[in-house]
Fold this protein.
Amino acid sequence: MSNQLLKGKRGIIFGALDENSIAWKVAQKVHEEGGIFTLTNAPIALRMGEINKLAEATGSKVLPADATSLEELQKLFEESTQILGGKLDFILHSIGMSPNVRKSKSYGDLNYDFYLKTLDISALSFHKIMHIAEKTDSMNEWGSILALSYIAAQRTFSHYSDMAEAKAALESIARSYGARFAHLKKVRVNTISQSPTRTTAGKGIAGFDAFYDFADKLSPLGNASADDCANYCIAMFSDFTRMVTMQNLMHDGGFSHSGITDALIEKMN
């Protein structure tokens, strides 16, 4: 049931690839709650995905943009505010990619050019997005900017590799730019640390099924789904969370605070 929590609000959603992606679910939920937005992803990702179906279903415009390019981001923000008819109230950063992970490089044998690309795509792009949002004065006061993170920013997870450092940088950027944007425009900036989720990107990590099963057994509520994450994003975009900023918000069914659970003990036995 829709409560029209985002009626009259405008935004940009980065990273919707296919119906398994969290950004896709967020876009559907924003539309249901009355918000309007543009959809964007890198040109190569747009060719791989099915984003035009989402655009048609939500009445949205797809604008290709490389989130690591300041020039393309500037064009994106200028076109988005023109298409949407005003400044923005929300932004979702759902971007992450590691060439080292994709090519199964050992953590002790990383390609450092790949490593820099991981950081640029998965973390620095968040800073660049906010830099351009500020430079173009594209955000309304009390707007909300979110990025999706993972608990590997704080803990070591086998095979997550250099993405762990990227997520740690992402969360740090949210705190630092959150302080800046709060003073400038009362815009809040947060990250949501999501459970392992069966997205196209997530399933590409070696051992993902073990990640997923372990987290599910260690979470009193079980793993949070992509749909549940979308609901959380809606809450964070709404006016009900106007004083929440610079936080890394755990959305993991209790995983981050669990030592052990009966379900995990039974599994081990």
Summary: DSSP finds ten helices and seven strands in the chain.
